[in-house]
Amino acid sequence: MALPAWLQPRYRKNTYLFIYYLIQFCGHSWIFTNMTVRFFSFGEDSMVDTFYAIGLVMRVCQSISLLELLHICVGIELNHLLPRFLQLTERIIILFVVITSQEEVQEKYVVCVLFIFWNLLDMVRYTYSMLSVIGISYAVLTWLSQTLWMPIYPLCVLAEAFAIYQSLPYFESSGTYSTKLPFDLAIYFPYVLKMYLMMLFIGMYFTYSHLYSERRDVLQGFPVKKKKV
Fold it and tell me: What would the pLDDT profile of 28-61 be if each residue is shown by its tens digit?
C-alpha cells in the first residue's frame, strides 16, 4: 500500500526546505525593507546605527544559515560543501568576530553597505531556491539568481576586507581576542586578522570560480530569443 503524499520522505524534505527558505527570505526581506525605509526617513544618519536597528535579526539569519552545511552533509540539499562553507564562514567571522565585538566598528558606514549587499544576494537566492523546491521556475529569476552575484560578490569581499582594515586599530587598542600562551608565547589578534585578509581573497577566487561553473551549467538550457531575419 502506497504511503500518503505527506508521509513520503521526498515530500517531507521539500516541505522542510520550503519552510527554511521562506523563513530566510522573510528575515532578509524585513532587513532590506527596514534599511530602505530608515534611509528615506533619516538619510545618512540611518547608516550609522544600522547595526543597532537590525543587527539582531541579521545575526539570527546568519546563524540559521549554518544549517545549510548540515543540509549538504546529509544530502537534502544538492550543493558543494567547501564553497558554501567558505561563504558562510566569511560572514560569520565578519559579523560576529569583527563587527559585534567592537562597538566602534558597528557605527561605520561599511556595516550598512555590507548588509545591503548580503541581503540583495540572499533575497534573490532564497526566492529562487524556495520556488525551485515546489517545482516553480521563472527564466528571469533563474538568470538573476545566477548573475547578480557576479558584480556583488566581489564588492562584498572588498567591503568585508575594508571592515577588517577599519577594525584593526580597535583590536590593537583593546586587546580583544589577544591572549598570552605558556612559554612566553602570545596570540596577537590583529596579526590573525591580517592573515585572514589574504585568505579572504584566496577564498574569493575559489568561490567565484565555483559559482561561475555552476552558472554555466544551470544556464545551458536558458532560452535565448533569436532575432528574426
Answer: 999 999 999 998 888 888 888 899 999 999 999 9
Which ranges of 75-226 would DSSP assign to H, the alpha helix?
81-92, 103-106, 109-133, 139-145, 149-174, 189-218
Angle between helices 189-218 and 149-174 (to 10 degrees): 170
To the nearest whole percent, how much of the chain has pLDDT over 90? Answer: 68
Q: Residue holding cell 549587499?
A: 117
Catalogue the active-site residues. Answer: 153, 160
Compute the distance between CA of residue 88 and CA of residue 118 in angstroms, rounded to an integer.
Answer: 11
Domain ranges in the chain are 9-221
Question: Which residue in the block uniquely carries the three cell numbers 568585508?
Answer: 160
One-letter amino acid at 91 equals: R
What does the alpha-carbon distance between residue 40 and residue 105 come to, in Å, rounded to a whole number?
A: 23
Of 24-33, 75-84, 114-123, the one with minimum mean pLDDT is 75-84
User: Residue 185's beta-bridge partner residues?
Assistant: 181
Asked whether the beta carbons of 80 and 210 are under 8 A apart, the reply is yes
> With a threshold of 0.70, does the pTM exceed it?
yes
